[in-house]
UniProtKB/TrEMBL annotation:
It is found in: Cytoplasm. The lineage of its organism: Bacteria, Pseudomonadati, Pseudomonadota, Gammaproteobacteria, Woeseiales. NAD(+) binds at residues 76-89, 277-289. Keywords: Amino-acid biosynthesis, Branched-chain amino acid biosynthesis, Cytoplasm, Leucine biosynthesis, Magnesium, Manganese, Metal-binding, NAD, Oxidoreductase. PANTHER family: 3-ISOPROPYLMALATE DEHYDROGENASE (PTHR42979). It is an enzyme of class 1 (oxidoreductase). The gene is leuB. This is 3-isopropylmalate dehydrogenase. One of its GO terms (cellular component) is cytosol.
């Protein structure tokens, strides 16, 4: 197939890991007879430096014309002034809204070989295989904001249709997995969460009565995510809760650098990025873990291009390289072969070529 992919390298280690993802996609295209072309565009701090806008019009136009978007990361201390009116994160929020990608899928699988890299006891990590479905374009991140010399506010708003569409995504995933769905909220305190629980309960009763559904408060979910992570399968929650819980879940896998994400909506064009940030402290050193971005490229193949065999091949290559004892520094323990970003990427490409 022919596909146009917009690549947004962004800031910090973003260009390094985005290049790794693109390299793997190119290897897939060559192996399976596809033709992928790429349009590299600016976003975040790099775009602010270039034209003063964290999401330039050319970037938006390219993304809209593409089959999928691969993103590195945005942000860094250079643009971290809390009083700044223009910030890199505005570009990320804006591109999500522009593309209408309301569902952020964050799979969390624990490779047995990486149990030693996690701060969590290895016995708690057995059989962990979950996917968190985070609502991405509503809630407190997108609500009206005010600030004066003595106070500030961030408005959290959810409408019924926003809750229904994200729960449908999660419920359909659960139906094709174990049939277990956990909806996370804060319904004992927040009105938005009370609406969330009410809408979710009614939707499940009318459209997904075959599922086993549990409602859980976010503080309890945070505790159980560490205490009994294998009990979770599909988790659905609102924007801020999902952001925080999946960063916590990354510690199960040993590193933020291992986890991918897919942001999808009603159109075919999705936004694919690792869950980690721009890590400016290691930018340019060639030590960033590319696995989260490469796994995000696998999700791109699966959800936007519908190339499931190719996606499976990428994920299998990552697993095999890890099984062979090859690591970047963030997931290495004694005895592992520590590789650079590029060497890790080349090892994964080599596995693809061997298959």
């Amino acid at each position: 197939m022919d596909a146009l992919i917009t690549v947004l390298p962004g800031d910090g280690i973003g260009p390094e890991v985005a290049a790794a993802g693109q390299q793997v996609l190119t290897a897939i295209a060559e192996k399976y007879g596809h033709k992928f072309s790429y349009s590299e565009q600016l976003i975040g701090g790099a775009a602010i430096d270039a034209i003063g806008n964290p999401l330039p019009p050319d970037t938006v136009a390219s993304c809209r014309e593409s089959n999928a978007v691969l993103l590195g990361a945005v942000g860094g201390p250079k643009w971290s002034d809390p009083n700044a009116t223009v910030r890199p994160e505005q570009g990320l929020l804006a591109i999500r809204a522009e593309l209408g990608v309301f569902a952020n899928l964050r799979p969390v699988q624990i490779l047995p070989q990486l149990a030693g890299a996690s701060p969590i006891k290895s016995e708690r990590l057995r059989n962990v295989d979950m996917i968190v479905v985070r609502e991405l374009t509503g809630g407190i991140y997108f609500g009206a904001k005010t600030r004066d010399a003595t106070s500030a506010s961030d408005l959290c708003v959810y409408e019924r249709h926003e809750i229904e569409r994200i729960v449908r995504v999660a419920a359909n995933l659960a139906r094709n997995r174990s049939g277990k769905l956990c909806s996370v909220d804060k319904a004992n305190v927040l009105e938005t969460s009370r609406l969330w629980r009410d809408v979710t309960s009614k939707l499940i009763a009318t459209e997904f009565s075959d599922l086993n559904v549990e409602h859980m408060l976010v503080d309890a979910a945070a505790m159980h995510l560490i205490n009994r992570p294998s009990d979770f399968d599909v988790v659905v929650t609102e924007n801020m809760f999902g952001d925080i819980l999946t960063d916590e879940a990354s510690m199960l896998a040993g590193s933020l650098g291992m986890l991918p994400s897919a942001s999808i909506g009603e159109s075919e064009c999705g936004l694919y990025e690792p869950i980690h940030g721009s890590a400016p402290d290691i930018a340019g050193q060639g030590i960033a873990n590319p696995c989260g971005t490469i796994a995000s490229a696998a999700l791109l193949l699966r959800y936007s291009l519908h190339l499931n065999e190719e996606a499976d091949a990428v994920e299998a290559a990552i697993r095999q390289v890890i099984a062979d004892g090859k690591r970047t520094a963030d997931i290495a323990v004694d005895g592992d072969q520590v590789l650079s970003t590029q060497a890790m990427t080349q090892a994964i490409v080599a596995q693809l070529e061997q298959r």
